[in-house]
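Attaching the record inline, Q. Sequence:
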Amino acid sequence: MNRFEQKIFDASRQTILSLYGLDLTEIDYTVEKPRDRNLGDYALSVPMKLAKTLRKNPFEIAEAIAAPLPELVPEAEQISVARPGFINFKIRQSALSEVINDVLEAGDSYGRNNSGNGKKILVEWVSANPTGDLHCGHARGAAWGDSICRLLEASGWDVLREFYVNDAGNQIVMLGESLTSRYFEFFGKDYPLPENGYHAEDVRQIAYEIARRDGDKWLDADPQERLAYFMEEGKTLELKKIERDLEYYGVRMQSWIHETFFYANNRERINAVLARMDELGLLYEKDGALWFRSTDYGDDKDRVMRKSDGTLSYLTPDVANHVYKVERGYPILVDLWGADHHSYVTRMKAALKALGYPDGTLSVDIIQMVRMVEDGVEVKMSKRTGNAITLRELCDDIGLDAARWFFVSKDVASPMDLDMKKARTKDNDNPVYYAQYAHSRMAAIIRKLPDFKKQDNYPRLTDEKELQLLKMIAEFPSEVAACAETRKPSRMTDLIISLVKLYHSYYNSCKVNNPDDPDLTNQRLGLVRATMATLKNALYLVGVSAPEVM
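Structure, as predicted:
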């Protein structure tokens, strides 16, 4: 809630407690925005929720609640009651315009809020296999997850950004074999490249890098020792490349947890989780395998934890991983998984619930598929390499800011087509260009009129579009909090476009520079500066730059 909403909310709760002796902590109600702006800036519908409890007409309840509110909400110019039981509030211009100095004083911090109240949350995303380049699907998830973290951090959450490295499976063996084959190739020797290995150019380049660095000493080495070396070196070099690509993309990770960590010390952490599950009666043996009674916790069938050959299912180390997250002091977990993991959500939540963790410990956002499209035709392969388009190739093509914007502007719960031709354009049909151009246009005004003086108030900002801008800017912190709470960065891109449209409309109808009226010019410059700062901060939250010259 912004400060006006909070003031209205607190005043209404106080009044209801005083009038009726009701504590509304258990009643879900909010300060709303009327569909018709002529009715006011904010509204309460709580009288209709109280009608049944109080056995009174909601309109009468609304009148009673509204009576003392002018003293409790002096920021309201007008408080009115409307049938069937609404209380509407129109905010004074003087109260709205106070936001200009709030923004100018806060600067890059404007929009930050404490709705998270320091709660600890661990967000795991990307988590690509360390066997090749990040591709466009990873780019969508990486942008979404990073924006979630930025929003949470701006809302006062204690966030840990984590990448889970899948490095204990057969894919790492195949990476080692593929690198060995390419290493032999460098020296003109034959070594079979596995059919289901990694044939991409980046793997060849890593093998050649090892060959140039180590020479030919691995050609005649012990095969097992050589494979172990290439597996470890390949994984290490691929992870370094992934980390560089993420940093280039504006994505910062704080923690890298390896699947092999859970296999260390003879599977110490995995065995501890299995023992705990066994003590709770969650496991049973059947056909030589160890099963989890996941159907008791909402799954459609029981799940194997240890196969009859003694190897573990994918689920087992994953459960150990999530237990470890909570053990490190993070009671709230968020995972971003690919569309092929949809059925995996229920079994993971079932495991955590069975182990005694409360509902809501784990939330999972599923990243649906993305297609690159140009002129209505899907573009599957890079023209340069003939392989899947990588994150870097995409950013080199359409621009980093365009990639970040387009991937967060549509909810990841839905598949998307990224129109590459549109993303490349430098006109107002491209939403990221449209938003950045507005910021550069504001910066140009400030460069032209640098002598702004902060005022105690801005009483001449009375045009309807000015009032709308002031209100939208005032609501920005609560919008940041709402985007963080819902984990919906796409709401922020919608807000950015709404702010930019409103600013362009204002700029076209109200002259900022009025040489014959320096006082009005100064007040409007204050509004431009506040709008510019808000736009810059909003763009940052979705990982997009705010250029001052375009």
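The mean pLDDT is 96. The CA atoms of residues 290 and 464 lie 68 Å apart.

More tomorrow.
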